Amino acid sequence: MDVSARIAPGRRTLDTVGGHALRAVLVTAVAVTSLVVVPSDPVGAVSTGRPTAVAVAADGTSYVGFANAAGLLVLAADGSPAGSFATGGPVTALAAEPSGGVWVDDGSVVTRLSRSGAVLASFPHRPAASCAADADRYGGLAVTTARVYVAERCLGSVGVYTRAGGLLATVDLPGSGSPRGIAWAPAYGKVPARLYVSVPDAGKVYGYDAARLSGRSKPVVTVTGSRPGGLAADDRGHLAVLDSTTNGLYLYDARRRYRQYRTLGHPPTAATTKGYLSRPAAIAQGGATAGRHFWVADTGNGRVQRWNSAGTTQWMADTRLPDAPEEPDDPGDPGDPGTPTEPDPPSTPVTTCRGTPSVRIDAGGRVARKPYVTLVVRAPEGAQEVLISNDGFKHSDRKTLTSSCRYPWTLEGGAGRRPKVVSVRFPGVSGAASDRVLLDGAPPVIHRVTAKWVTARRGWVVRIRATDRGTGIAYAKVGKTRSSTRRFSWPADIVSWDSSQLRWIQVVDRTGLRSRWYRLRL
Question: What is the pTM of this model?
């Protein structure tokens, strides 16, 4: 089904969290009847610290990220400052855990932080891409209990990862534009689980069947706008689309073929007055505990606004990062020339690992137990870089050759019977190579074993119900003791007149992984 729709054109010092501090935040808020409400007079926008990413936990705690500073601002549910902590670099996108932790994407690496800002885990994008695309215009992040979805800032694709960083699929988006917002929505009524992705340059929001997402997936929903960016989706079939050109937030009902039923933000007028927006970049929506309210990164006004679903402004917090870079100098002003620096010395060409092009996965092993492997690459003479790919160079990583000849890599997709292929080639120099490996990290599982005396077969007939998520079961082992078993090819046809020979049963997959022993009692 392809569905289309069209949208209308005080200074405080923060407490430290995790050992880092953002030294100043401007917050404009007045408490009234259990809500934090802003004055009706216009509020002047700040010139630095323009928020470009926002995420909210189940209790209403929100995290604010910036494209021009390496730090996160933490706001309490009422908009008051609750702390801060540093990040590894400027923030492209954020996603919060219900429990209060936060995931941070800097455009090339996704990092999971605890509620106190401690790094719990991280993984790189696959394929990694370096480009000059603005962090406040492209890229996005969505996290569920099982998956991490990364809208690539510099590629027209979405990466689907496990929470441990294993790449399951790369979904190519229609056209050539890079994505911005991304949101996952659970199934509701007759609407299945959806993954929504906005492509600002195309003026489209695409919806995918989240349960069947793969590298071959195509959109089943298309919502058209001016320049859609930040997205939010709730558990009741509603989609919220933020538009940076019209300065509005548009709400759609998936149960009614994505009919637009509400507009917030007074588009297309940009203003500093509460309830208005100016070039908004990102949006987050709280769950049922947080009242399903919206947190909007009002970038042009340098603030975060919290609205309810009807558009009432509950509070807004003007934010400024003290370590944010200053505005660039006027090109006509030479400024202070400073102290001249010596140019970087020319890089030394890599001379090791030369010869016939080749690549080996984990030293040429036949089986990988985890998707994280090490490649050993041999390059032809004259090569200085290598392109590495999981899919025949539809997507690839470009890496400078190293003297160690080793490169960390992540295999794409889950375990299975088909081998994973990694290919290499060398820009500007002829030569290519590939290697393959089976990915299977989980042993088979025996679910049930039954035995029945069958007179026609003159013995006990054993039936084994077992599964393997990876390469498949190769054979079963059955015997009186665990050290004296017979091997039966799978699917096993096991018959014995002597029941004592059927006490211990085990199945083995095609990579040699073994199930737990099953004790059959007759």
Answer: 0.67
